[in-house]
Amino acid sequence: MFEFSLHVATIAALYGLLALSLNLQTGFAGLVNFGQIALFGCGTYGAALAFNNQFGPVVGLLLGLVLVSLVALFFARLGRSLGSDYWGIATLAIGQILLTIATNETWLTGGAQGISGLPQLFTGSTRLQGHLILFSVTLALLAATWWLFHRLTQSKFGLSLRLMREEPQFAASLGYDLDGLRRSAMLVAAVPAALSGFLFAHYMTFVGPDQLFSTETFVVWTMVVIGGLGSHAGVVVGAILTQMLFAAVPFAKDFFALPSEYVAAMRLTLIGGGLLGFLLLRPQGLIPEKVGSIRG
Amino acid sequence: MVEIALSAQKLRKAFGAHIVLDDVDIDIARGSIVGLLGPNGSGKSTLLNVLTGFIAMDAGQVALGDQAIGALPASEIARRGLLRTFQLPRMPTRMSVREVLLAAERSDAGIFAALVGRSLRASARTDELLEQLLLSRVADQPASAISGGQKKLLSIAAALANGPDILCLDEPTAGVHPNLRGGIVTLLKQANAQGVTLLIVEHDMAFVRNLCQRCVVLDRGELIADCPPAELADHPRVVEAYLGRAAARRVATSPEKPPVKVPAEVRV
Amino acid sequence: MVQFLVDLLLRAGDIALVAVALSAGYSLVKFPNIAIVQYATIGPFLAYLIARSGIPFALAVAAACLFVGVLAVALNLLVFERLLKSGSAIAMIGSLAVGMLFTATLLVTAGPDTRHFDFAITALFDVFGSNVTLTQMISLAMSLTAFILLALLLFCTDIGRCMRATAANPNLARATGIDARLVVRVIIFLSGMLAALGGTGIAIKSELNILLGPDLMLPVFAAAILGGLGNPIGAIFGALVISFAETLAAAINFGPLVGQSFLFIPVNYIAAASFLILVVALLFRPYGLFVNEVKRV
Predict the structure, then answer these.
(1) B167, B160 in Cβ contact below 8 A?
(2) Structural contact between residues B217 and B229, judged by C-beta atoms closer than 8 angstroms
């Protein structure tokens, strides 16, 4: 039971990183990213490709960061001429294209089978100890990202992102370069997403295309909307809550003796219902964004 | 020799077959306050949009001092010191008035500045400015929730935050409560005294006479007059543009005081 | 060559109905409704269910389309119009959530298995030397009929004029006495019906499972965006372009180019062709092939 709780907590922390990342893009910069999981995938495949070519995790980490920067810059470039809903569709399409490549270029990515056998990053005297260290590292990374993003969004940079989110034309009329802001926001937000993917890959010891389905993006979206767009604390709470609910699904299935397709259906209901319910009934989320907290 | 702050040559803009700006030339002296007048649909707002890069022109040149800025994006033009306000300023819903004012000043807006701690320090200046704008009471409310006049005031203050060379204003007092108009006039006079050149689209003649040394008048995309505000009422083409041909003939033929007067608020 | 044209037309017919539904809905309710592709999944499932109880196929399809049309109107009223007040992106996320709930419902009720409509006659017809099945003919006929009826409705009736007027300028239309709410309901109803019909056309030709809708999503969005979102007739052209690209990519033998006798693009990449067209279109012609960008200040 302890091991299971540790697993849930680790996954929740990894998703917390993804939620903070999406929140900086959508909650602050107003960038409706439906391809968030592609940023995560840069991290996982960075690790996997390095491992497959006999390089160590450091190379994998760097490769992931390079890949994620390229994808983030391309996303930002697309945002130049698009409204937020169109941009959402474009990012979704890019996510699907990257998924198609990952599934079909078997020589590079292992295809649908993926790449397995990645080493654990931390080996304590027992497997459990290794996992404990990994969880601590993930937690520290989550805290650091939270602190960094809090600092960024409390600064002039954060104010300019929010101005772009709300009134892009007004922001441009004051001299803010929206392309530049978009680029910075995407690049900064992409890093924790890729780090999350990198840690996930080594924790699961397996990387495959089925980890990159667009449903995973919407899981992160649910976390962010439940927690509260524009609230760092909120989205981390959202990530923890959602993961706890997901963890309960298999127990519920056993308890009610339901067939296995109910597990998938229950997950979908949790994501879809959570998203829809909050959007309709409490669009500001559990912990709403604080307006006017910056007093200069 | 007067130094030219902003000059535009042969500006041309058409929306489809409809020509909105027809070879407009305009020079604006540094430190002056120029009124831009004309009936509705004469191309004033389009001229402002073209000058500040918010609409791409079809042909022509714009120079800020001695730099050509015609092809630059709007934000770059603003960074070089040519700013503008909007006729109906839209303000953020999820930012307070104070936050908008803070965001307006662009210094230290990068990621680096945020990280090394040169972020926002408590500044008495913002409080002072809010006080002067009579916005202290609403400083912590969402910027979208204040009145239209207050939004105009806030948007002018925001545009002035980075010390522009030139500020173009699109109807700064239209629809503004009389109590706030004085505040806007004071703010603009103060800015001008500090060296900011002003180009103001306005319908209120009292405001124009009070503030502007010079007026340019557009009609159907053409520049038809360029004179001090006092001479506008005698200018045949201006009268024609506002009141029709018959009135213009009477102005042109009568040697003494014209029988028609341009009303205080001309809006045709 | 004839085979190529037949394949092209069949694929275009599939995409076009749903793309037209998406675009028509967008013309009045301004957000990209992702749940449209789920309407295209629910339609054939319902038709399948109804047809199994012994009701003739045509009647079953009609009933299913009617039901989905009503469902679309109800969802628009209860969910999307409320969400749209917070912006089109929020409404789009909401439609995504609705789509997930539909998938969950289908998983529980119908299950993940693949089904087939059973038609007694599966004879092949010879059309100028290429083989066409009966179901393909039925599907194509359904698409064509739907398009002709839609065009007649839009361009030859009063309600069609009201719809176009409302799409162009809702406030003005309201001021001239058009009941904009009624027009919206009619259009949303029609878009639900069209999507259901499109899904049924696909299901009778190949197979029916819960992935039908999700698989359609990007080709349909690509077609609708190419045609200019909000322009239903443009969506048909968009669908032709997408199908042309897909069919061409599948038919060309790239072997001689690289010195092999046979080299075809893998099937999975052909699906990605439409995603790629979508991204390229968004990069260079974000508001469709037929519209030049108008910058408003």
Answers:
(1) yes
(2) no
Mean of the per-residue pLDDT values of chain C: 86
Closest by CA position to B257, among listed B238, B237, B233, B240: B233
From C265's Cα to the closest Cα of chain A, the distance in A is 11
Cβ of C32 within 8 Å of Cβ of A85? The answer is yes
B260 part of a folded domain: no
Report yes or no on B159 lying in a domain.
no
Provide the shortest C-alpha distance from residue A98 to chain C (in Å). 9
Which chain A residues touch B81 with a CB distance below 8 Å? none
Give chain B positions within 8 Å (CB) of A228: none
List, in order, residues 6 or more apart from A150 with CB less than 8 Å away: A232
Structure tokens belonging to residue C13: 């017919």
At residue B82, φ and ψ (nearest 5 deg) are -105, 105
Indicate whether B113 belongs to any domain: no
For the CA atoms of chain B, what is the radius of gyration? 20
Number of domains in chain B: 1
pLDDT digit string, tens, across residues A168-190: 999 999 999 999 999 999 999 99
Partners of A104 in the β-ladder: none
With contact defined as beta carbons under 8 Å apart, do A103 and C272 qualify? no
In this prediction, residue C31 has a pLDDT band, given cuts at 50, 70 and 90, of: very high
Nearest CA distance, C219 vs chain A (angstrom): 10
pLDDT of residue C250: 80
Q: What is the ipTM of this complex?
A: 0.90
Whether C166 and C180 have beta carbons less than 8 Å apart is answered as: yes
Nearest partner of A36 among A290, A199, A214, A246, judged by Cα: A214
Phi, psi of C21 (to 5 degrees): -60, -45
pTM: 0.91
Please name the chains neighbouring C, where neighbouring means 3+ C-beta pairs under 8 angstroms. Answer: A, B
Residues of chain A contacting C29 with CB distance shorter than 8 Å: none
Domain with B199 in it: 4-91+164-176+195-253
**Among A65, A13, A1, residue whose Cα is nearest residue A203:** A13
Lowest mean pLDDT among A43-52, B215-224, B242-251: B242-251
B76 in any annotated domain: yes
Other CB atoms within a 10 A radius of the CB of residue C138 amount to 19
Nearest to A103 among C83, C86, C268 (CB): C268
Q: How far off is chain B from A78, nearest CA to CA, in Å?
A: 17
List the Cα angle B33/B35/B38 in 5-degree steps: 170
Tokens of A251: 């127990």
The candidate with the shortest Cα–Cα distance to B168, out of B88, B43, B57, B81, is: B81
Cβ-based neighbours of B92, under 8 Å, separated by 6 or more: A162, A163, A165, A166, A167, A170, B99, B100, B142, B143, B144
What are the CA-CA distances from residue B28 to residues A124, B5, B70 (Å)?
Answer: 74, 6, 16
* Angstrom distance (rounded) from CA C40 to CA A157: 44
Structure-block tokens of residue B71: 């092809």
Long-range contacts of A123-132 (CB under 8 A, 24+ apart): A128/A3, A128/A6, A131/A3, A131/A6, A131/A7, A131/A10, A131/A203, A132/A6
Verify whether the Cβ–Cβ distance A89 to C88 is below 8 Å.
Answer: no
Is the pLDDT reported for residue C186 higher than 50?
yes
Q: Residue B54: its chain C contacts at CB < 8 A?
A: 295, 297
The domain spans of chain C are: 2-210
**Residue B227, φ and ψ in degrees, nearest 5:** -160, 170
Half-sphere exposure of B228 (CA within 13 A, CB side): 4
Q: Distance between CA C107 and CA C105 in Å, rounded?
A: 5
The CATH number of the domain where B203 resides is what? 3.40.50.300
B197-201 and B166-170 strand pairing? parallel
Q: For residue C11, which of C268, C207, C242 has the smallest C-alpha distance?
A: C242
